[in-house]
Structures
1.
Amino acid sequence: MVNGKLYEIIIEPRMLLVDVLRERMGLTGTKYACGTGDCGACTVLVDGKPILSCLTLAVTVRDKNILTIEGIADGNTLHPLQQAFIDNGAVQCGFCIPGMVLSAKALLEENPLPTRNEIQAGLAGNLCRCTGYVKVIDAVQAAAETAGKGGKI
Amino acid sequence: MHRVLLPFEFFEPKTIEEAVHLLDTGNAKVMAGGVDLVLKMRLRLISPEYVISLLKVPGLDYIEGNPAGLRLGALATIRQVELSQVVQKNWTILYDAVRQIASVQVKTMGTMVGNLCVATPASDISPALYVLGAKVKIAGVNYEKVIPIENFFVAVGNTILESNEIVTDILIPSLSPGARGAFMKLAKTAEDIAKVNTAVMVTITDNICTEAKIALGSVAPTPIRVTGAEELLTGQKLDGAHIARAAEAAAEAVKPITDIRSSAGYRKEMVSVLVKDALLKATSSGRV
Amino acid sequence: MVQKFSSVGKRLPRPDAASKVMGAAQYGADVSLPGMLIGRILRSPYPHAKIVKIDTSKAKKLAGVEAIITFEDVPKLPFTRSVMAEGFPAVAYEGENLDQYILSDKARYMGDWIAAVAAVDNYVAEEALDLIEVEYQPLPAVFDPEEAMKPGAPLVHEGYENNIAGKIEHPFSCGDVEKAFKESDYVVEFSGQNSRQKQAHLELDVAVAQWDTQGRVTIWSPCQNPHLAKKALARRVFDIGEGAVRWITPTVGGGFGARMSFGVEPVCAMLAKVTGKPVKVVVTREEDFAGWNSRTEQRQTIKIGVKKEGTIHAIKQKILSDSGAYLSHSGSITAVNMQSALGLFRSPNISGEAKIVYTNNPTSSGMRGYGNPEGAFILQQAIDMAAEKVGMDPVAFRLKNIKGVGEPSMWIPVALDSCNLEQCIKLAAEKIGWKKKWGGWGKKKEGRMRSGIGMSIMTHASGAGGFLLEHSHAIIKLNEDGTAHLTVSPCEMGQGILGALSQIAAEATGLRYEDIHVITGDTDITLFDIGSHASRSTYVIGNAVVNAGQKVRQMILERAAKKLKVFADKLDMREGRVYVQGAPEKGLGVAEISHDAIYDYGTTGQHIMAVGSFQSVSHCPNFQAGFAEIEVDTETGIIKVIKYILAHDIGRAINPQNVEGQLQGGTAQGLGYALYEDLVIDKITGNTLSDSFATYKIPSSLDIPEIEVILVEEPASSGPFGAKGVGEPGMVNVAPSIANALYDAIGVRINSLPITPEKVLSALKSKK
């Protein structure tokens, strides 16, 4: 189940989740950037938890709920995190963004009102080369405040 | 330079016994979180024909804490341990160690047992488990055994495990009331592997140290205890002078290497600084 | 009079942000064409070796393999990997060595490109790579530029005696430095080197290529200078006309100078040509680290002579650069180092010379700052040393010696017409509390933890007006509904240039920001432009957009004048509406004007559109002061940056949010450059040991200190709405200000990057 839809695909055990998502399902939002699990650009949520799809054998998550960046908007309405990233200037080249947004979503689901330090810690597995993280943390803080006022995360 | 893995057969046993029997078949590797295994396979450092996943064996992810001690199951993830109230309150030094692993994703995928089996000398959790007096339970074909964690590591990347054995539990005893511990790590950036890491545990009764344990990582092929330094603390008052002497002795006892992360000389010197800082932290904070 | 802008100066969301947060933005690796093959490259395991024999027979037999190529199959037309070089005047292009083929004739570094495969998928391609058998004859290799120049050293390229790839004399030398040193009251000399910093853009290099039946090729690849890349690929690599190449730039995942060189595009185009099918070439992160792009390692000595009243009397710089196996940008980046370092301060006597040397290290090239960060690390420490000799506060010493309006710019010595460096220095010094925190020279500090404060200043270009091909063109055409299409050719690599140009277009035309739609990234559609580098895009391309905007605005007003029956000069336009000055209720929407112009069945039918142009003749330098406050643990040598404050002379921030983002991001890269990033190459085997993010550490979210950005906005008369460049400068002041702060804290200077705890501790010990 990916983004709430059931897919039936024949795969080999050796296939990595990132490749299956990108090449077999056309979900190219999830990015491949290092292949060593160090940068977090390939992060997707499996049963709500952030994992590295470049080090996950697709076969091991075949009966789980996978959420990719393509799945977090509600139709045409952006998720509060997506909107906050846009509004706060947190998006530069955008390559880290899918993974960053999903890690932030997992963080806020576990800790709805994190301090700046807690946000930094929650995003420590996602490298960004463009922003210096300042506006990324601003965005997550802003999204947390919006959700606190009644929006859902 | 490879992006994809070589083909292999994939098995999902439902019990430990089944898993162990499958491992017995030859060029097979067991997989839990897979973080290290998949990477090594991509880099062609290992190429197993059979991968035996433990993920379908039910009930392996327990974290059970009670007055007798702490039991971590084979599939208990590092993140689960980090979030466990029981661990935070009663085995704080373990909590401090896992917290130093920065990547949430790595902690979510990676298991405690898996971290041990990778047997990197820079493991953050190993020194903590050393001073906690942990044991590992190993299952083989029709047998089980329990060994102290200090006998588990053999060399860089090598444990005492036979190719057809699996670690099923990490067992950690409860701590005595006078026990104080601290974990410290020196690394280049917040999410880097340690240049040096240390865990210390001292038991203090009536102002005197009755037991001292000092474990070091990243300074030898396996994590080590520095018993010479420990002996300098036993039966003593843990004042600045004794702590400094023990820290010096710890540094003298090690022969670290120079690698891409740091130099032998720096590591050796940092052992004395880190052990001193850890002992001071342990004795002042009152936390375990 | 305070101008009230409708778009410029506002923190508007960029037009490309939404698709990026949705995961919908298409990067090179996301491009997929029917029948597309996957291409992979075979790399040399030796740093220096003759290729005796390549046996591809086993690999060719593998089902799904469509082509395997080697040096034998490629055009014997050598080229330079630097695409940027196509924008150089002949005198500079002569310094670019054409030392590269699509695949190498000889292995010159560990990782050099020896063969390439195109197959139906990555699985088959990799299997084929493993089946290619290459017989190498390993040769002695050299990894140090000093060693490489010695007689008898292994020769990396034929025809380059002593491996000297190039020599540069600073073109703006003046006076007589040796005489001036003798006349100086104090002379300081400081030598050191920077590291091979990796650009480490998160998006890996990638290309897709497809030839059509008429001999035209389309390339999809991230590129900072697509028009130049198109020319280079056409004329240099394949010897075809420029019109035969179409370069499409997908969304780019970070550039930082890396996308100014050919990556895998020539190999990709060759595989596509040979197979007759579209091919996508991909690489691993390991290949990227051990490859063809990094900051050039430069060893420098800077000597400064000062008079006792604190004026600089002479400055001399000597540089030795390690080009690696192929020249790429190493020559030009060395030249820019000299220009930034030797042109920053006022001095009657200046001299500079540089040598660039081939070694069997991976190719180095250009990275953000392009020589400026390399020079600043040595220069700004030498400046502090000079200030100490004279007994002057570092702030005061710099203020005494910086140039102002009317004095010669650092690049081509045209007179500066916009310079607010003094204000930058004063504002940032005040903000960080310099007066309170800097305790004077030679103050001995006590305790395990010691604080320190240090500063650095810089200047950088806003494009290379007067030197490179700095003419730019923009097209604005109105649509029937009052929206407009803006066609420009920068490279949006995350800096926010598309948003900035849209804001400029909206302001210049009088349209609404949200009604501007940008068309870019296709050389078939956009007009010639040398692209995004040298922090030029806002200044040069922005001015072309202003020009186009003013023309379109005039056309709209003239059409509206006829409808409203008033003279055009009595009309104004704002936010998509034309109105009579002083009677704003009397007006028309742009949609009505534009629609009626097109649907004019009379004799005055018109599609309102204009091409705007701008020829930049000035580097219009921007300026910046950076201050770092640190704490040093004298027992571990670990430096913690508590606070970093910078003040940047931006002219006008078209979008302050984007400008802050560039400066914050540059600061983070500068922090990595200063403290963490170390591309380690084994000096015996030539193997790149730092080949992953596990071993090459860029800052994570937990490593960033408190960063404060001050924007000094005194509009530059030649900039679009007064704006100057800002893309690169964030990188420059960080390492030198930390190094100077370190000296303040513990009295030692570190002269190589990164400044590691190991080096700090070792220096502390030597001091005792």
2.
Amino acid sequence: MSKVTSATSGCRLAASWLVGVGMLVATTAHGQTVTVDSIPGTLVRFELVHVPGGAVRLPGQTDSVAVKSFWVGRTEVLWDAYDAFTLSRKPSPRYSPAGADAVAGPSKPYGNPDYGFGHRGFPVISVTRAAAEAFCAWLSAVTGKRYRLPTDAEWQRAADLAATASPPVPIDEFAWHAGNANGTTRPGGSRGADRLGTSDLFGNVAEWVTTGDGQLVVRGGSWRDPIEQVGPASRRKQQSSWNERDPQIPKSNWWLSDGPFVGFRIVREP
Amino acid sequence: MTNFFDPNRRNFVKASVGAAAALSRAKPAAALPWASSATLRIGLIGCGGRGTGAAHDCLRGNEGVRLVAIGDIFADRVASCRENLAKVAAEDPAIAAKISLDEGHTFVGFDAYQRVIDSGVDVVILATAPGFRPRHLEAAIASGKHVFMEKPVAVDPTGVRSVMASADLAQKKGLAIVAGTQRRHDPAYRATIERIRQGAIGEVVGGQVYWNQGGLWHAARKPEWSDMEWQIRNWLYFAWLSGDHVVEQHIHNLDVANWVMGGHPVKAVGTGGRQWRTGPEFGHIFDHFSVHLEYPNGGRVASMCRQIDGCEDLVAERFQGTKGATDPSGSITGVSPFTYQGAKPNPYLQEHIDLIASIRAGTPLNEGRQVAESTLTAIMVREAAYTGQMISWADLVNSPQDLTPPGVGQLGPLAVPPVPMPGRTKVDRRFGEG
């Protein structure tokens, strides 16, 4: 995460430079605070953007829910961080009736779950929600901080702030979607920042969230979706087609054989 | 994208994609009892995750089929297979209606395969470790059963010759053999390679095939396991069981190479080694291979495979011709550009649909020789690296190499064969010889 791409905005340049001199907080162009965390024993760093609390209404709902403030990953989780998780643990069996757990790491995939789209600097794909949650549990354990997946409402809060602009900014300016991604994932943050100071909330990869009723839901849309299906209202439940080609029974707890558009973003509790 | 992770898949369709030109079909057999709507009884031999998945694919892909017998060397595998199928059935009444398993039709032991075959089935799914495949296929064809068999179908030339003989016998008997080289049932590959074979990239002069990924699973040894049981439960890491990862996994890409080149290679030379995965839990196989194959027209195909963590992964096939180039999973560039945009059914499902449809039509598919040749191609790559010598097809296909250990029918002591050493290892070797 220390690499600064040409698409990086001025605020992130500042943040990256400050990391270099040991300061871990900066502000985005729109006033949100950015902090930098790292994974001990590795060179992996990642940025988190502060999201102030507020009320949100989920797609299709009439009632608002209150969301407390939290930190959200500036980009989706990249392979760099996920590989640190994978390489630090004993691999799990491909399937265990107990599900994915963070004591062991991901099971060994048969094939390449990154599809050859790109690895270093690219968002994690093909992961089940259980795998994403196991990553968060592991990250919390090795850092002593509290990381987890965003709730549906937290993701919505970040998305509302990211998309709010007057005059409105076309989503195309900060989203990788089927019309511009050319059939693959793109490096995390390479499309530029939204109004919250995060990147890729909309498009690139769809992001796992947790829901009150246990449903498996991704938000935001992905590189595979047309632009009209990418944005703050994008919300999809997992389909059986997402692991259709896993040729084994039972199917993997860790990998979605047909989920090259499914990744995640972390939140950190204050 | 050529592995089972497929980014472009669309809704699968059940329509048969028909037989590839390269396939042979058995002569129509007269008055097949199952050519009508009669139920085809399915037996599963090898109850691991893939075998269970293959049985599931057969059941969900077809009507008029019923799983009636299963068998495995180990009782816990039979039990977990039943349990996992019961879970699937609980969620899917259509699958539940196609499973009739009782205690009298679940078999355990080295002879479980024969007992499944003898239990009144019409079709058997062969999904044990590959080293057992030639014997299981021979028994199935001898008993008049149609076969779905996972790849690879042998681990040594002796086994390949046996599979070829069984395939020929199946042809005479009007029995179907479909193999788990599922790219052959993927319409994107089929449409692309059909164009290549018709000259869309001119003469194919070369290519590159890859299966580079990290390491795979292994099962920690339990004190009560004999050497034989430990090796079979960790079959990936013993050449007599898996053929090495180049045969077990890279065969998919080498099968595509033979398909594109229009036949098998004539020579192989290359290198490989065991550099990273060196612990005793990983048996004696290599963790990387890089071998060049020469085809009858002089075309060269570079074959590379690796199972080492933390490296760049790549699973792909590419070929170049005098008039263009191709990724045979769906695109051609050059004078006749092509991008596959049709339906993308799940090939793991499609292979079972095609198998059953061919049986019902009385024109059974027979992929036996084709997959035997692809298996021997992968063995050729392995032997080029293991021995350090130039390997010719003509010599290899007749080699007496036989990796089957003595006493394979019972659990007991079994030494781990030595790690092959280029310059010393001979092609014509028996189990345990370096």
